[in-house]
Amino acid sequence: MTQQEKQTNYIGPFITLVFLFFIVGFLTTANGQFQGPLKTAFLEGVGDLKNTFATLITFSWFLAYPLTGGIGSAWITRHGYKSTLIRSLFLMLIGLGIFYLSSWFTVRFPGAEIGMGESVVPIGFFIFLLGSFVVGASATILQVVINPYLTACYVRGTQPIQRLAIGGSSNSIGTTIAPYFVTGIVFGGLSMEDVQVSQLMTPFFSLMVLIGLIIFVLFWITLPDIEGTKAETGERLERSVWSFRHLRLGVISIFFYVGVEVAIGANINLYAIEQGYSQPALMATLYWGGMLIGRLVGSSLNKVSPRTQLTVTTIGATLFSVLAVALNDPWLLVVIGLFHSIMWGAIFTLSVAGLGKYTSVASGVFMIGVVGGAILPLAQGMLADALSGWRWSWLIVLGGELFMLYYARIGSRIRVSDIQAK
Question: Which of 60, 272, 363, 387 supports an S-S bond with 277, CB 3.0-4.6 Å?
Fold first, then answer.
């Protein structure tokens, strides 16, 4: 950060990106919460594969991360941060329109179905999966902008992990509200068996209007680029960003982090329903709410290093994962939200430390790891079907926590040769 940039007022851009982090969190969790209702509304004809098909909603969202993260980095280099934000929000409008189309199509053509072996799936469900991928692509590109910008923009009295924690707190407010938005507003508090696909249209249209307003406002907001965080147009980077060991292992670590975070947030509903709990959405809400509390606490930790924060939280999450499986108690999984709260910011900060002009490219590469949010919840759903229950499938979460503990203590350490070779 140059002296001139320290004198630049980044408060406005900072607040803008924190708000956009709210949008990303809200839509990510809302998308996952459609698993339960759509399992009833769309998937009556898939027999014993309901869990597998339901988790495809999350899979399609997070599949966008490895496929479109590089697009976000290229847009930043070519068009700058502000233009990339606007482009990603236009992409979000398209995705929400596809969500709307999936509901309209199913209502208009109720007999349009595809046979897959012994399963029968409405075409509208596959349209919804496409919308999930497109909105996921938008969320990916938004985060390719937000993460390095919050890390690099200078706000007096804060360190990078604090700014990411503040953004993460906003993200968590969105994730906390989303479960009850889906069950209480979109579906009007109905029980799962009474859900109607036609109820999707109005909320999605309302979200399209909201995103349109955000785009309009964003056109008038100043969002200065930050020097030294991206290659200039036409500049050739001397080495592959993959050559940085701590970034490579950070991508793997974020794969496991997002995978286990989403596995609990999206699949705990299905686990609670299996055990007969009357308000499964409450568990998801408290889980995401725990992440909000943890991030609010993390935003005040200006003297605790990212490595220490990641070590303490992974140890806590590992302990509660073991207890949840041993006692077959979903409430113990809810507690893990407190520990997951600051992991994203800690892992990202450790992964891009010392990368300089490679930072924006590294941010796009970092998004590849987010595909864990697609793979691990889907793998868990398949394992739950294979085992006829969710209990032992949570060992996937335990494995992820252990890898992140390794990254905190060993994998995140920067090799001197990497920095000297830049």
Answer: 272
